[in-house]
Amino acid sequence: MTTVSATPSSGYPVRALFAPPQQQSRLTVFFRLLIAIPAVIVLAFVAIASAVVTIIAWFIIVFTARFPAGMFRFCAGAQRWSLRVQSYLYLMTDKYPPFSLDDDLNYPVRFLAAEDLAGRNRLTVFFRVLLAIPHMIIVSLLGYASRAIVFVCWLIAIFTGNVPEGLHNFLAGYLRWNIRMQAYIGLLTDKYPPFTMSDNA
Predict the structure, then answer these.
(1) 65 to each of 54, 126, 181, how far by Cα in Å?
(2) Can you tell me the mean pLDDT for 121-128?
(3) What is the rounded CA–CA span in Å between residue 190 and residue 65?
(4) I need a surface site. Which of 5, 112, 116, 169 has the fewest CB within 10 A?
(5) What is the rounded distance in angstroms from the CA atom of residue 129 to the CA atom of residue 55?
């Protein structure tokens, strides 16, 4: 089993780490969308709860410049859950995403977020969605390309049980950029996301 280490340093406080491509079951690849349905349904409820908590946190941060620790950890856990499910759908791993908000050292996809609780920038939080528009545009365009690439990976993996490393790395970069944007919009950090697919930002 390949684990993902968090040893490499990164200046950005939100990270998405992916294990290298591994052999996958061609049968589960073929039925990936069907198999993922339970995870997607549960994630939908988690995402709704996280959206509500984020809205409440927005008001709290605007008035107090603090993100309550429990609310932060729930929202970070929801982002982690979302990344795992999307990664499973994107053939980044054959390992089923756990129904958990917690980090798992043995899962091949990890989401890490440094806790940024006090001294938050109330002005950038107030205008957060507007500030994120450039990233929304780029991630939207990358999303079209990524979905086409996932389909190509799906066809390849059905016959070989593998996703080519170059395509795997592109999808990892897209997911990394997307989760950074989501974390920024979700108020997990005040640091503006880098315009890069790399983890070394």
Answers:
(1) 14, 11, 21
(2) 97
(3) 11
(4) 5
(5) 12
